[in-house]
Design a protein that fits this description.
With about 230 residues, the chain is of the alpha/beta class. It has one domain. The chain contains ten helices and four strands. The protein has helices at about 1-5, 20-30, 45-50, 65-85, 90-105, 115-120, 125-155, 160-170, 175-200, 210-225; strands at about 10-15, 35-40, 105-110, 205-210. The protein has a four-stranded parallel beta sheet with strand order 1-4-2-3, sandwiched between helices. The longest helix is centred in the middle third of the chain and has 30 residues, at about 125-155. The protein is globular, with a radius of gyration of 17 Å. The termini are close together.
Length: about 230
């Protein structure tokens, strides 16, 4: 029973700001013709992507002094720099999934945990972890701007690369891993579990590559408890 339920979900692992990921999403939605397209967005991020003007000037905004907020801002700046080089804007793969889903009258589900809840959870992470990651990001952004963007994308597409990065991140930032990855994986799995019980047709779930395995594992556990 668990296997049959899982077979109804076509997981699409994407790399943010990657043109190939945008095309993969488009192809899968058109082939599967799902009843529901689930995307790794919350309502706030969806509104930002729907109204790009609200994100202008992000890279020039001063840091707030709130460690959790500043970390999220630095992450956004890095993604913005990567997207500016690759030609795929932040969230293009998610918005493409939504557009393709609407074209076939599929339901659209925003299944990520609200950003505000994630930031609030980050406030309970040891400051040492927050400071260390925040201080690493400007150098990573500079490497991207200096020509390392495509090398980074190529590396992420190698077999096992994402799993290796996730393990390294988990080792260096255990509490941040819980907040940014594991808690969100559980939230997404809960949402997909609800969708599976509420709909009979196939589902396409578009998630960052680093979330796929965690979401699958959590969803299997939820289905097994039925």
């Amino acid at each position: 029973m668990v296997g049959k339920q899982l077979e109804r979900v076509a997981f699409v692992a994407v790399i943010h700001t990657d043109l190939e990921s945008v095309e993969k999403v488009r192809k899968v939605v058109r082939e599967v013709q799902p009843a529901v397209v689930a995307v790794e967005l919350d309502h706030e991020r969806y509104e930002h992507l729907s109204n790009p003007g609200t994100q202008e000037g992000l890279s020039t905004m001063p840091l707030t002094g709130d460690t959790a907020q500043d970390l999220m801002q630095q992450l956004a700046i890095m993604e913005q720099a990567l997207g500016g080089i690759t030609g795929s804007n932040v969230g293009d793969e998610m918005m493409t999934a939504i557009k393709e889903g609407r074209a076939i009258n599929a339901k659209i589900a925003l299944v990520d945990r609200p950003m505000k809840a994630t930031v609030q959870a980050m406030m309970r992470v040891p400051l040492d972890e927050l400071y260390r990651l925040t201080n690493m990001l400007p150098d990573a952004t500079k490497d991207i701007e200096d020509g390392g963007a495509f090398d980074l994308l190529d590396m992420l597409k190698e077999d096992g690369a994402v799993d290796d990065i996730m393990e390294q991140f988990r080792s260096e930032f255990p509490e941040l891993t819980k907040v940014l990855i594991e808690q969100r994986d559980q939230y997404v799995a809960n949402a997909l579990h609800f969708i599976l019980n509420d709909n009979q047709g196939p589902i396409v779930a578009v998630l960052g590559a680093g979330h796929i395995q965690g979401v699958k594992t959590a969803l299997e556990e939820l289905l097994g408890d039925n």
